[in-house]
């Protein structure tokens, strides 16, 4: 006997209800895309748009120059860094934007970003090693860092 037999309307109602509930659960399980979160340092200006923004900022009297790199779109989200250069040397690198939409992104980047920062300060260039497990973030970091260094004239 067919499960949707017209002689059994309750069975049809139950199957239709179960299908509706299943569809709603799947629909609600979809994660909507959220706007990227920008983390800014209170001492430096916020990035402006997608173009790189240079600023002589608060460190201009000491010869320090702070430059924000381009925002690089990666598979998991945007990556953007800010570099501080003094006397032709990189003195600080700060990640302004990076993937952090879910706990896994946060876990990966809490490990990867400090390593990328150390690598950049040690290498004094964007020629840094990729962090295993954070390949897309590492590549975006390198590209944004290179654009900032290009803007700084290094």
Descriptive overview:
This protein has helices at residues 9-29, 103-123, 135-152, and strands at residues 53-55, 64-68, 72-74, 77-86, 89-97. The chain has 3 helices and 5 strands. It folds into 2 domains: 1-30, no CATH class; 53-152, Sufe protein. Chain: A. The longest helix has 21 residues, at 9-29. Residues 33-60 have low confidence and may be disordered. The relative contact order is 0.14. Strands 1, 2, 3, 4 and 5 form a 5-stranded antiparallel beta sheet that branches. It is rod-shaped, with a radius of gyration of 24 Å. The chain starts with 8 loop residues before the first helix and ends with a helix. It is an alpha+beta fold and 154 residues long.
Structure at a glance:
With about 150 residues, the chain is α+β, with helices and mostly antiparallel strands. Helices cover about 40% and strands about 20% of the residues.
């Amino acid at each position: 006997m067919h499960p949707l037999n017209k002689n059994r309307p309750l069975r049809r109602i139950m199957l239709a209800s179960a299908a509706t509930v299943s569809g709603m659960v799947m629909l609600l399980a979809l994660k909507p895309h959220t706007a990227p979160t920008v983390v800014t340092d209170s001492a430096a200006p916020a990035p402006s748009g997608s173009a790189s923004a240079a600023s002589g900022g608060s460190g201009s009297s000491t010869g320090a120059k702070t430059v924000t790199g381009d925002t690089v779109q990666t598979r998991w989200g945007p990556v953007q860094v800010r570099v501080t250069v003094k006397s032709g040397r990189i003195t600080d690198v700060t990640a302004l934007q990076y993937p952090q939409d879910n706990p896994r992104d946060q876990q990966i980047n809490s490990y990867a970003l400090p390593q990328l920062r150390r690598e950049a300060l040690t290498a004094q260039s964007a020629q840094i090693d990729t962090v295993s497990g954070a390949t897309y973030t590492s590549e975006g970091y390198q590209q944004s860092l290179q654009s900032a260094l290009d803007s700084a004239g290094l």
